[in-house]
Q: What sequence folds into this?
């Protein structure tokens, strides 16, 4: 009798332990889901989006989205998810790789004897590249302000091409790329805008890099 009771007690204890483990697992799952949801958030940043868009176009954006969501994906899975041939996916990946925006690791498939490459977005590099370009422009603007004070420059609202007064006059205040009227922008306003954009990148950098 005594031993039986003991047994049932230990069973109960085991059950309790199991339950605890289950709860832990559930918690982990939720955490993972949140992180996944967030990683694709960086594409909502206009500067990051246009960096990728310039390199791989709209179809490549989908690939970047998948990589950000899954964090690390092998080429075959990527092709399946994108409903594309592996070679097409590879050519997009190489374009990104030329700019070092993605990294890979490879593993030998023992059964078939070939290498399987898995890819992920190199987030620190993404932030670095976007920020570098902004900082370069900020420096130029600050130099100009120092030299000439805050003058107006002319900017295309569509492609953001910028020029000084003489050049704008030459183009009859119309963007040579887009054909839309140029807008006059104060250099100090431009500088503050750049600073805000850099701060936004830095915020994402703290979160994800
Ligand atoms: Zn334009």
A:
């Amino acid at each position: 009798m005594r031993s039986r009771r003991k047994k049932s007690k230990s069973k109960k204890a085991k059950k309790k332990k199991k339950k605890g483990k289950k709860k832990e697992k559930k918690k982990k799952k939720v955490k993972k889901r949140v992180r996944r949801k967030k990683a694709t958030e960086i594409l909502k940043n206009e500067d990051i989006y246009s960096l990728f868009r310039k390199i791989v176009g709209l179809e490549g954006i989908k690939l970047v989205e998948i990589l950000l969501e899954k964090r690390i994906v092998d080429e075959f899975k990527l092709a399946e998810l994108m409903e594309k041939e592996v070679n097409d996916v590879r050519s997009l990946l190489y374009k990104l790789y030329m700019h070092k925006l993605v990294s890979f690791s490879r593993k030998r498939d023992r059964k078939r004897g070939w290498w399987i490459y898995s890819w992920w977005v190199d987030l620190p590099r993404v932030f670095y590249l976007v920020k570098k370009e902004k900082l370069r422009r900020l420096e130029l603007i600050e130099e100009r302000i120092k030299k000439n004070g805050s003058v107006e420059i002319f900017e295309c609202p569509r492609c953001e091409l910028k020029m000084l007064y003489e050049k704008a006059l030459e183009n009859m205040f119309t963007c040579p790329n887009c054909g839309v009227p140029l807008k006059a922008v104060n250099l100090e306003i431009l500088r503050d805008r750049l600073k805000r954009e850099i701060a936004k990148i830095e915020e994402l950098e703290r979160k994800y890099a």
